[in-house]
Amino acid sequence: MSNGTLLLVALALPFLGSIAAGFLPTHARNAAAVLAGSVAVAGAGIVVFLYAGIADGEPVRLWLPWLPMLGLDFTLRLDGLAWLFAILIFGIGALVVLYARYYMSREDPVPRFFSFLLAFMGSMIGIVASGNLVQLVFFWELTSLFSFLLIGYWHHSATARDGARMALTVTGMGGLCLLIGVLLIGRIVGSYDVDQVLEARDLIVDSSLYEPALVLILLGAFTKSAQFPFHFWLPHAMAAPTPVSAYLHSATMVKAGIFLLMRLWPVMAGTDAWFYLVVPAGLVTLLIGAFIAIFQQDLKGLLAYSTISHLGLITLLLGLGSPLAAVAAVFHTLNHAIFKASLFMAAGIIDHETGTRDLRKLSGLYRYMPFTATLAMVAAAAMAGVPLLNGFISKEMFFAEAVAEHTGSLLDDSLPYWATLAGVFSVTYSLRFILGVFFGPPPVGLAHRPHEPAHWMRFPIELLVLICLMIGIVPSLTVGPVLATAVSGLLESAPPYYSLALWHGFTLPLLMSFIALAGGVLLYVALRRYLESGIEGPPLLRDFKGQRIFEKLLVTISWQWARAAEAALGTRHLQPQMRIVVALAVAAALSPFIVNGAVGAGGLPGSPVAPAFALLWAVGIACALSAAYQAKYHRFAALVLVGGAGLVTCVTFIWLSAPDLAVTQLLVEIVTTVLLLLGLRWLPKRIENVYPSRPPLKVLVRRCIDLSISCSLGGLMAFLAYCLMTRPVPDTVSRFFVERAYTEGGGRNIVNVILVDFRGFDTMGEIVVLCLAALTIFALLRRFRPAPESIAAPEQQRVQNAYDEAEPDRSPGDTVTDYMLIPRLIMNWLFPVIAVFAVYLFIRGHDLPGGGFAAGITLSIAFVVQYMASGTRWVEDHLRVLPLRWMGIGVLTSAATGAGSWWFGYPFLTSHFQYLDIPFIGKVPAASALLFDLGVFFLVVGATVLILIALAHQSLRSSRAAQAAEGGD
Amino acid sequence: MEIILSIGIGVFAASGVWLILRPRTYQVIIGLSLISYAVNLFIFAMAGGGLRVDAPPIIASGTAGDPSALADPIPQALVLTAIVIGFAMTALFLVVLLAARGRTGTDHVDGREPER
Fold it and tell me: So where does this one cross the membrane (chain B) (predicted)?
């Protein structure tokens, strides 16, 4: 297996594991944990295996073309930088899984938790291993989605839901900005491929689109990495289960933004715009985060704000734009991931064992859980930057960079002071974490007596703290090579000289470290009384709540503006909407004439006018106009008139050489009329005299507008039709069909050959539409509730039944039977005739007008005629009609005919024909298309009959309902 | 011929549009039928070679057809499909109309009677 494929496996494993975990039983806690753990360990194993090649400077690549012409391919690319993140994602992921196994309660649906966690892990790997920027954004959005699910895992809690929603809104908006930014980059460079983008620094920086792209990409990165002013979502995400916080806010989610900044650092950093956008954001985040962290009363809140502060530190370093600062940024990313994960886990243990995270309630826990306390203290010391721990070295590098000269501006010159101040704050909040929780008097009022957790729950912290110590004491032996690989991946060139040694002599950074440590202790002592007073929130900034602004904004946009827009633009009336649609259509059709100038009729002479044709259309026009006039009050008349218009259409088709259309139109006309007749029964009685005198002015104006709209549309359509008919039509594919219909399709009726052979796939889709429409109608009518006043038997039936009941020798229904006696006899006899005619239409279809559609509708008419003559009950006692079966057989026959050509190695629906010599009959054409047409025939019969019967049955059902209602009274 | 057919198409379309702008569902359904006649005829009239009388697209046995002697089959094939789909849509709309009438008690397109 090549390295690229291995990388693909590492990416796919978490997603596959996620699906598998989703199918586990709800309380299979151990199985899910083992599954998730083995996926993470396997992924880490693969990533470690890939290290050798990457350390030599050659990224692992995999390229699977998808839409190469759009520059969208599935590309994987794992270089040194991505490798470092990948190992953090899988490594810390494995530890989090182990921890979560003990942390999660037996009552929670734990497999779902692991399913989300694995999917999140896969999305993170997708971000770091993407070799295509659009693909990166795709995985970026996936992390937003899965983090939403993870933060909201305890969805019964309102804070969890709010926190999840806020995180999704903020990071999702950022993701959108990022997508646009990436598209701009693609436009500048001409490719989304990371390799090509990384080589195009000059192109990008000199482009006029550089600033917009930069701002958009930074918005994406800053929202994800919780930089000021988008930091407020992170503390609210603490409503998530602690393993989620430990994972998302140490090594993964928030580091995605950092990763993006690092990924694009070689091509976007080092400009003034970059410096003045990134450095202030990082600096403000660093200071505000650290300051607020000091005053948190919630253990996880303290860690959350400290995370914000550390992310600010990394962002600040990346903003400086110097290679050495980038080295420090990478190193601090690694260190922060390690100590912050262990601190979150420790906080989770404290919460788990004491039942609270409130610093005002916790104290003196050292005597109950000395091991955990010791581990947490070491990790907190790393966070504070105490020597011999990993945090010290990277913080030292940060101080050195703060001192170094970058742009020479006031901001740059003041950096050392700000950096030291941030160091002071971080020492203070670390001290508060340690002293507040583990020392002091024994806690009072806890739910139960705290004790050490299960050993395996503590194991991840032990391992992480051990790594903190190893990096802190012998950095060059442990982390040196990995850091070098990562840095060369980031810089796309050989790394600058840097020393990972613990001792650099008495330097300015060392002095700053010392001041920070001493200052932090002093500040803690000074603030101690204030902190013990138990006031929530930091001074000065207490009333500034990002969350409140965010919610205000949401309410404004999604409620106030939406309502205003709805009030201004929305309507619950259909007619104004239709008016706008039609008017827009007219305007759109007119616009070419306005833009390009008016045109007149074309030059073709046209065919001579036949008087009969003119007369025919005079009738047609009269029918259409009177139908429009009568449709409101005289429904039946309107139906007859529309039928007249349909017949005129039908004759026009015959006249103008379209026999197939005429046949189909005529048959459809019959069925439609029957259908509408069946429907008329359920419509309300007409409203007489809505406007007793004359309609109000408003109504008249509305009618005038409608009249002008419809007249202009009609006039435009007539004009267009005339213009087009008097112009020659360019050569179309018609020639192809006409020339090949017989020689290749084996049929003389070209229209039919097109439908069942050349464009068979279209017809297939069409019959499926018909099928779906019929099924929808069937489903709608199953739950049909007629209006109360339509339930009673129609007036005519009532009169007849009353007459029958009055006569002693008649039973109800006799009158109608008598009336129908002769028609019924004829119609019953017509059944075989119509059926034979349908078969005839079907067989001749390939050569002469006819075909599956026409034959199908004809046969369904044969059925409907029986229903009309004898009534639903009689027909269903004598004839088993199973329209659903007909439809099923039809679809399957057509599909099987189409699929049959696969058997012979041809594409779907390739047809074959030959002439069979049948004794006594002679040569008969036999095309596989005929079989396809048979499917069409079956389906059309089934669908049409189903529609008509479903509607006809309603009167049976409702009369039953009416009887039941009467019986109940 | 062309001018008559164009005027006919125009009138069908205008009547249909007038009806779909009306407030009662039955008017809308009648209007849709008229519009579909108009549109089908419009498409049909776009045939290459213009309107032809006595030239149905049916060829003699065993030959390749001559495009200049026959009516254009493509618009016919398109319209044939459109007729069938139009039928399905009319049926579906009719049932939706009836269901809405049963549920809301009115046949107004808005699902409720306008306030007067």
Answer: 6-21, 28-47, 77-100
